Amino acid sequence: MADALYLEDLHVGQTFTTGSVTVTAEAIKAFARDYDPQPFHLDEAAAEASLFGGLAASGWHTAALSMRLLVDGLPIAGGLIGVGGETTWPRPTRPGDVLTVHIEVTEITPSKSRSDRGMVRTRNETRNQHGEPVQISNLGIVAWRRPVA
């Protein structure tokens, strides 16, 4: 893992790109069985007849995969502690998609009441192998200040 990043290490406009993960039909169905058991996530024939026109991962599966990529690719000191945000899924994640998260720091706000931290806002696009966004998240993350030696 890369060196931990503190509030002072970040700047607006800074970008990061995570590693990648390949989504399989088996993983889509396994996640769906446990967490989102809808026919278009579980069965190819039912998915073909749905709005999706084919097997599609749950948005929550895409979110979970994105979170894993973020943890590995955005080494904020103290971990990724979210403080709110918004997520959309502009297109479905399909079997065979290779997902990568592209992160941009959009805002940095040092805390006025707690001198040891601040908040960083990021725009995160989870993109498939064609560069098409399958998830877009705007998130607030706690970022710690570098400890004084």
Describe the structure.
- The protein has helices at 25-35, 39-42, 44-48, 59-73; strands at residues 15-22, 82-88, 98-110, 117-127, 133-144.
- The protein is elongated.
- The longest helix has 15 residues, at 59-73.
- Strands 1-3-4-5-2 form a five-stranded antiparallel β-sheet, with helices on one face.
- The protein is built from four helices and five strands.
- With 149 residues, the chain is an alpha+beta fold.
The main pleated sheet reads as: 5 strands, antiparallel
Strand order of the largest sheet: 1-3-4-5-2
Estimate the helix proportion, in percent: 10-25%
DSSP summary, beta strand count: 5
Which class of secondary structure composition applies to the elements?
alpha+beta
Shape: elongated
Average pLDDT figure: 95
Q: How many helices?
A: 4
Indicate the multimeric state: single chain
Q: What low-confidence regions span 5 or more consecutive residues with pLDDT below 50?
A: none
Distance linking N and C termini: 23 Å
Spell the H/E element sequence.
EHHHHEEEE
**What radius of gyration results from the CA coordinates?**
17 Å
Strand proportion: 25-35%
